[in-house]
Amino acid sequence: MTIAPSTETDETRKPVTPDGGTRSARASLRPLVLRLHFYAGVLVAPFLLVAALTGGLYAASFQIEKIVYADETTVAKVGDEKLPISEQVAAARKAHPEGTLSAVRPSPTDDATTRVLLSGVEGVDETDTLAVFVDPYTAEVRGALEQYGSTGALPVRTWIDKFHANLHLGETGRLYSELAASWLWVISAGGLVLWFGRRRAQRKVRGTSGRRRTLGLHGMVGVWAAAGFFFLSATGLTWSAYAGANIDVLRTELRQATPAISAAAGDHGGHDTGAAEGGAAAEGDLDKILAAARAEGLGDPVEIVPPADASSAYVVKQVQRSWPTKQDAVAVDPSTAEVTDTLRFADFPVLAKLTRWGIDAHTGVLFGLVNQLLLIALAASLVLLILWGYRMWWQRGRASAFGRPIPRGAWQQVPPQILVPALAAVAVLGYFVPLLGIPLAAFIAVDVVLGEIAHRKGERTYGGRTEAKRSAE
After folding, report:
1. What is the DSSP letter of 280?
2. Fewer beta carbons below 10 Å: N end or C end of the chain?
3. What are the b/e assignments for 386-395, b being 16+ CB within 10 Å?
4. Are 118 and 111 in contact (CB under 8 A)?
5. Which range, of 196-205, 342-351, 365-374, averages the lowest pLDDT?
6. Residues whose CB falls within 8 Å of the CB of residue 10, separated by 6 or more in sequence, listed in order
7. Which residues are CB-neighbours of 80 under 8 A, at least 6 positions away?
8. DSSP per-residue string spanning 153-178
9. CB–CB of 235/14 below 8 Å?
10. Helical segments of 154-261, H only
11. CB contact at 8 A, 315 and 269
């Protein structure tokens, strides 16, 4: 992804060839792409830099979490047989009677603890839960930590996650990450066009120095990392504030939204459903509810969600986001332990599956450690590209001047039959991805104003010199 051309003469040639013919469409587009790449690289790069640094940190947070919370998440000694879920929950509630039981995640492996999740606990964010960790062999409570999100993030990973998503500035802070995701693919695409538009001899790095070497390194790394950047941009937009909402609407219109299981328990004929006042489940039912889910093929890891009210069922859902993805779910009537509804991941619409896999790969959980290492490598590549880009801007300056800009007027060289459809496509795209469209409109407006100011200043200067010359004569 190049910020500027290797030489000024390459990008400032006139659009008319010596024989009077017009330049090819490809040649006429290059200066326009260059100027867009330059503007985006200089102005959006700071947001991309923050996203890269925090994103790389988040990719490493899974391993950090395992180390920091090893005492809570693992058992001291693997036993012979795990205790019933009801006993484990009873032990957790004895140690922490506050709040309401909102879910249980039984121990998924031999050395993992069971998580009993409590909502409405004083001092815990209302969107989070208090996770009480219980040894499944002894019912010993090994600790309690605040948990966030469907991936079960504990405090360290939660802090890093929110730092990457919104810089701990709430909904307003989400604009930074959406801006970065909206422009990452544009800058990557522009860099590819510029790089492959150069002559092969100008792409080499070996034997070069100065700005040409910086350009070579910038372009070479950008080409290799481009596919990853496109992926991160697309998946990041799927759960962004504005573009993400538009994507959800489109998926719904195409009948590709993620399906939800029905938690209605049905007619109980006046029997007690096992749901207590306030939505808390009768904890003794958990064992038969889990057994019913196991009979439907739901293997670990799973989460048991109690009924919301007297007319609702338990929901048992798989929570494995790693490959192979396990996202099946069943609803179980608490009075009869009969399955009232089943939802299989295999039956999800195609776009729903792709969204699930895309988000999980973006967050580093789909392929585990390999996924996380690839994300760290992409983040490091983006940091290097940004630093090289700014260095090229510095090297492009004359004497003490910093960053001589790319010449204006590139759009005037594009044939109307290409420019008009391109502008229409950009307008439509900008509407659906507003944090691409609004900054782009701002770039164009500022560029036009500065160009007009420079033009008028040039006219006045030229006129002044003419008058002075005439006076001298």
Report:
1. -
2. C
3. bebbbbbbeb
4. no
5. 196-205
6. none
7. 137
8. B-HHHHHHHHHHHHTTSHHHHHHHHH
9. no
10. 155-166, 170-196, 210-237, 243-253
11. no
**How would you class 313 by CB atoms within 10 Å of its CB: exposed for 0-12, middle for 13-18, buried for 19 or more?**
buried
Q: What is the pLDDT of residue 29?
A: 77
Q: Which of 109, 105, 103, 104 is nearest to 75 (CA)?
A: 109
In whole angstroms, give the CA distance from residue 274 to residue 313: 9
Would you say 222 and 195 are in contact if contact means Cβ atoms under 8 Å apart?
A: yes
Q: Which residue has the tokens 């039956």?
A: 347
User: pLDDT tens digits for 116-148?
Assistant: 999 999 999 999 999 999 999 999 999 999 999
**Cα separation of 4 and 131, whole Å?**
52
Token readout for 446 is 């500022």
Q: Which of 160, 59, 146 is nearest to 382 (CA)?
A: 59
For the ranges 89-93, 388-392, 443-447, 463-467, the maximum mean pLDDT occurs at 89-93
Q: Cα dist. 266→27, 51, 199, 259, 309 in Å?
A: 67, 47, 70, 20, 12
Q: What share of the chain is helix, strand, coil (3-state, %, to 5)?
A: 55, 10, 30
Instruction: Kindly compute the dihedral angle of the four CA atoms of residues 161, 165, 168, 174, in this order, to the nearest 10 degrees.
Output: -160
User: Is residue 274 scored above 70 in pLDDT?
Assistant: no
Q: Are 292 and 342 contacting, i.e. CB atoms less than 8 angstroms apart?
A: no
Q: pLDDT (tens digit, 9 = 90+) per residue, 191-230?
A: 999 988 877 767 777 777 888 899 999 999 999 999 999 9
Q: What DSSP state is assigned to residue 365?
A: -
211-217 long-range CB contacts below 8 Å, 24 or more apart? Answer: 211/6, 211/392, 211/395, 211/396, 212/6, 214/388, 214/391, 214/392, 214/395, 215/2, 215/4, 215/6, 215/392, 217/384, 217/388
Structural tokens at position 120: 């409405």
**Two tokens, residue 14:** 């006139």
pLDDT, position 270: 40
C-alpha–C-alpha distance, residues 456 and 98, integer Å: 72
